[in-house]
Amino acid sequence: MKGWTASEIPDQSGRTAVVTGANSGIGYAAARELARNGARVVLACRSEPRAEDAESRIRAEVPDADVQFMRLDLADLASVREFAERYGRGRGGDRLDLLINNAGVMALPERRTADGFEMQFGINHLGHFALTGLLLPRLLATPRARVVSVSSVMHAVSNIDLRDLNSERRYRRWIAYGRSKTANLLFVHELARRLARAGSDVVAAAAHPGYASTNLQTAGARMEGRRAAERFAEWGNRVFAQTSDAGALPTLYAATAPGVTADSFTGPRLQGWRGAPVPSFRARWTLDDRAGELLWEASERLTGVGYEALAR
Prior knowledge:
Strand order of the largest sheet: 3-2-1-4-5-6-7-8
Protein name: Oxidoreductase
Distance between the termini: 46 Å
CATH class: Alpha Beta
CATH architecture: 3-Layer(aba) Sandwich
Number of domains: 1
Strand content: 5-15%
CATH topology: Rossmann fold
Structural class: alpha/beta
Number of helices: 10
Largest sheet: 8 strands, mixed
InterPro entries: KR_dom, NAD(P)-bd_dom_sf, SDR_fam
Organism: Streptomyces pathocidini
Mean pLDDT: 90
Pfam families: adh_short
Domain Ketoreductase: 15-163
Number of strands: 8
C-alpha cells in the first residue's frame, strides 16, 4: 500500500511556519518542503553561519522560497524571549500558522543550560515549552494553527521523574533523553487538553522520525571525544537509518495533512523505525492527565512562562 509522501502536502500559500533546529536533519527537510509548497518559513536556529547556509541551500533547491533566519538558542531562556519579541515585531508577526518544535539534543554528557537546567530536559522540553507559551497569542489568533512537537520512540525508555526533573540525583544520558522525550508527549497531551477547554481550534500534535540519519546520533560522542562511539553511530546511520527527508515525513504529516487530531502521535510505519507516516505507539504514561498537569505546573515555574491566554 502506497504511503503518504511530501507530494501530498496541501498548498501552504499565505501560511507562516516557525521550525526550530531548521539548519540540518529533519528540521531542514521539513522547512524546505513547507517552503516548496508556498509557506513563509522562519528558520529558528542557534548558529547563524549554519542557518544562513541552510537558507542558501533551500533557496538553491526552491528558487522562490520565502525563508528567513531568526536566532534562537533554546538553552537560554533570555534568547527564547528575545526570539518571541522579535517575531512579534516582524513581518506577519500578528499570526503564526505552524510551530514545529523540532530542535533537540540526544544522549549528551552531563551539561547545564544557561539557566541551570539539565541540557536535554532544558532544550528538548523547557525551551520549547517557553517558546510555545510566548508565541501562543499568535497561534490563537490564527485560524486552524498547529503546534507539532517532535518526540522519539526512545520516550519508552523512561517516564519522567517529577521529583528530579533535572537529573540532579543521578545522571544517565539515555534515561535523561527518554525522560525529555516523554516530557514532549506529556506537554502535547496537556496542551491539547487546555486548548480544548478554552474552545480553541489550534491543534497540538506530536511526531517522531524513527531512525533517521542526522547529526543527532553523533553529537554526544563527539563532545566527549569518544571517536569509536562516533564512528559506530556514523556506521549505523549509513547502514540502518532512513534519510532525513524520509524522517521528516511524520512531522510534515502532523503539520499539514487534513484530519490530524489533537494529541495524536505520528511515526514511521515499519516498527516505528522507517517508512510512511502512521499512528505511532506511545507509552501509557504519556497519556497520564495528572502527570501532564504536574509537569505543566513545574514547567511554568521553572521557565517563568505562563499560558495566561488559556486561563481566560
